[in-house]
Amino acid sequence: MKEKLMTISIVLLFSLVFAGRGASQEIASTDYDAVKKTIEQSIGWAIEKDFDAMFRLWNDNMFHFWLFSNSLVVGLDSFKIYAEQWKDSDFRGTRFEFRDLRIVFSSSGDVAWYSCFLDDCGSYKGREYCLENVFQTGVLEKKEGRWVHVLMHGSYPVDKIPENYVRRFYSSLFEKKE
Asked: What is d(CA 2, CA 42) in angstroms, rounded to the nearest whole number?
């Protein structure tokens, strides 16, 4: 009986150690702040419109897919072409906010993945607009001492698509058919 109790105690102890290790992996890396800053700057660059700084946040073999089907971009050279639309002098980022940012590091420490909810606001011709509550995910890799995005994805959960998008893209689904 004593042996069983001792075995159970050891198993529980090791279980708690490993469970605690996995739960704390979010903030355990010494690179947490650097990864967080890279994530923030991947959106925040638009406030200053520093394209060179933005492109340094991405790996050559990056993959980007944002809310709309025309935003599928593979490779940094293609991303630079895609980004031409943001060079319009009437466009500027105004503010952004990440909520529930969760960053996890690989056991090797050179890969990090994250998820959050994002409000991303900008202005066009002086009129502000905001993409609110976008579910954003991404993967970063440490290359030559710096963290770069290899993947970024933004979407709305199907039950949280803003009404203006439902009306814009799906209005024909609600029209009466004769």
From this structure: 57
The per-residue pLDDT for 79 is 94
Instruction: Give the residue among 20, 55, 27, 62 at the shortest CA–CA distance from 41.
Output: 55
CB 55 within 8 Å of CB 73: no
Global pTM reads 0.77
CB atoms within 10 A of CB 7: 10
Is the predicted pLDDT of residue 11 greater than 90, yes or no?
A: no
Confidence of residue 88 (pLDDT cuts 50, 70, 90): very high
- 31-173 belongs to which CATH class? alpha beta
Q: Roughly what angle, to the nearest 10 degrees, separates helices 2-28 and 32-48?
A: 30
Give the full edge-to-edge strand order of the sheet including 73-74: 73-74, 58-65, 146-155, 127-143, 111-124, 91-105
134 strand-pairing partners: 118
- Residue 75, sorted as left (phi over 0), alpha (psi -120 to 50) or beta, turns out to be left
